[in-house]
Structure formats: C-alpha cells, structure tokens
C-alpha cells in the first residue's frame, strides 16, 4: 500500500508547486530594497562628467530613477511615456546609464531626446548591482525621505504608468 501512496504523494506535491508557480506574475520579482533607503550613486553625470549624481541632494522630493542603456530597445520605446509622465505630473526623472559606453549613451540621448534631469554613468554596473538591477529598463520610485517605494521591471507602457506607477507616486505626495 505504501509503495502506491508514496508516488501519489510526490505527484500531488509537484502539482501543487506547479499550480503556485503558474498563478504568479512572472514580472513581479520582489525587491529587498522596497521601503529601504536608496543606495548612494555618486557616479559622474553623463553629460557633465565633473558633476556626480548625489541621492542625498534629492531628498525632499519624490523622484524616479530609470535604469537604461543605449543597447536596450525597450528603453527607447519607453522614452515618450517617461517624458510625458515626468512633464505632466511634475516628477523629477533621473537616469542610471547601465553597463554602457559613455560615448554610445551620449549619442543615443542626442538621437532619441534626453528626458532626464541628469543621468549617471554606471559603466561597470556596480551601482546597478546595489539597486538589484536584473536588466534594463527598470524604474524605481523614490520618496521624499530617499526610500525606494516601488520598482517597475521592464518597459513602462502608458497602461503601467497609469495603473501602477502614478498611483504609487500620488500616494507619496
């Protein structure tokens, strides 16, 4: 009897795990940084290498950190959404150019338009690692106290902006 129940129990356990996995949103990757202070950036600003992007100087305002790269197609696709969202809603938009050559990133911004107040150049990806970046694009909503309150993995569409990001930002104002 036991030799029949053991395979059945194993099958039911595997089926339960499969059902749990299929019911989850694959884009919902939890971040250990939610509600924690945003890591320091302190990297040179792409278009002003003598300046550094300082997270502490941004305290007192809600702002977005968009992780992007010139080699990222979806990053180009989300630029119009980011531009309009930041302008229409008065949200400060900063960039983190991730694992990119500064000359490629500068040319990309000139070609596609620059929606960022400033964009730090993270050529080796060190700061991206501190933010837990999985890939580009990723966007973080950071509150007035400098804490990460929301993380968007992947492309920001108008629907994602209006249904997820804007409500998160409005709740922080």
TrEMBL record:
GO terms for biological process: cytochrome complex assembly. Keywords: Cytochrome c-type biogenesis, Disulfide bond, Redox-active center. One of its GO terms (molecular function) is disulfide oxidoreductase activity. The keyword Amino-acid biosynthesis does not apply. It comes from the Bacteria. CDD domains: TlpA_like_DsbE. Residues 32-173 form the Thioredoxin domain. This is Thiol:disulfide interchange protein DsbE. It comes from Achromobacter agilis. The lineage of its organism: Bacteria, Pseudomonadati, Pseudomonadota, Betaproteobacteria, Burkholderiales.
């Amino acid at each position: 009897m036991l030799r029949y129940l053991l395979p059945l129990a194993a099958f039911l356990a595997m089926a339960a795990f499969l059902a749990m996995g299929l019911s989850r949103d694959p884009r919902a990757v939890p971040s250990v940084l939610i509600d924690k202070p945003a890591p320091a950036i302190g990297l040179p600003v792409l278009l002003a290498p003598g300046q550094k992007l300082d997270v502490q100087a941004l305290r007192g305002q809600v702002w977005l950190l968009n992780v992007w790269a010139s080699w990222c197609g979806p990053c180009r696709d989300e630029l119009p959404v980011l531009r309009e969202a930041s302008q229409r809603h008065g949200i400060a938009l900063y960039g983190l150019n991730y694992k990119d050559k500064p000359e490629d990133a500068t040319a990309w911004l000139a070609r596609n338009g620059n929606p960022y107040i400033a964009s730090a150049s993270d050529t080796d990806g060190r700061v991206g690692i501190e933010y837990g970046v999985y890939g580009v694009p990723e966007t973080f909503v950071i509150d007035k106290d400098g804490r990460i309150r929301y993380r968007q993995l992947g492309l920001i569409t108008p629907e994602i902006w209006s249904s997820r990001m804007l409500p998160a930002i409005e709740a922080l104002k």
